[in-house]
Write a structure and sequence with these properties.
- The complex is a heterodimer.
- By secondary structure, chain A is mostly beta strands.
- Chain A is built from no helices and eleven strands.
- In chain A, a hairpin with a 4-residue loop joins strand 5 and strand 6.
- Chain B is mainly beta.
- In chain B, strands 1, 3, 4, 7, 8 and 9 form a six-stranded mixed beta sheet that branches. In chain B, strands 2-6-5 form a three-stranded antiparallel beta sheet, with no helix packed on it.
- In chain B, strand 3 and strand 4 form a beta hairpin.
- Chain B is globular and about 40 Å long.
- The chains are: A mainly beta, B mainly beta.
- At the A-B interface, strand 5 and strand 10 of A face strand 8 of B.
Chain lengths: 120, 109
Amino acid sequence: QVQLQESGPGLVKPSETLSLTCTVSGDSITHYYWSWIRQPPGKGLECIGYIFYSGSTTYNPSLKSRVTMSVDTSKNQFSLKLSSVTAADTAVYFCARGYSGRKSAGADIWGQGTMITVSS
Amino acid sequence: QSALTQPATVSGSPGQSITISCSGTSSDVGGYNYVSWYQQHPGKAPKLMIYDVSNRPSGVSNRFSGSKSGDTASLTISGLQAEDEADYYCSSYTSSTWVFGGGTKLTVL
C-alpha cells in the first residue's frame, strides 16, 4: 500500500523560504510523476507543479519564479522549495502521485497534508 | 491559468441524482480529454473519483460518472447517499499544470 507523508516546519516567516519533503513508502518513486498541491484555509485547490522521477519539472506559471522541486530516488523522496513567502502562501500543502504513471490523469495517492502558516 | 467554474453548492435527497458542472475554455477542459474529479471530506485529502473525463479508478463506486461537452465537463452522482456529502473539485490537464475548479459543496438533504 503506497503512502505519502509530508514533512516540514509548520511556521515560516515572511520573505523566507518554505521547504517541504514528501516521503514515499510502499512503492518505488520511479516511473511516476509527483506533485505538490496546496489549499488555503476554506478555499480551493491549486497545483504548484509536478516532477518526474527523472527530475523533469513543470511549474504553475503564477508561482514559477519562486518554486523549485527536486527528487531523491535513493531516499524515495521529493521536495518543494517556495521562496519569498507571504501570508498568501499560508495553506495546507499536499504531495500526491500522478495516476498510472501519467501527469494528465490526475492524482490518485495523496499525503495527509501539512498546514503551513506564514507569519512573523 | 484561470480556475475552472463550478457551482458553489448543490443539494439532493438520498436516492436522487445530481450533476455538478465544470466550465473551462479551449485551453483546458475543451482542449484535452483529461478532466479529473475529486471528492474531499472535511479535514481529509482529496480522493480521485474520475479521470480522463469518464473513467473510474479501481474501487470507486459506479454511482459516479463523468462526461464532457465542449468546454464543460460534468460529474453525475446517482443514488445519492449520506456519505456522498463532501466538496467536489474538477481539474483539467493543461499545457502547464493542472487547473482546478473552485469546488462545489454537495449537501445530502
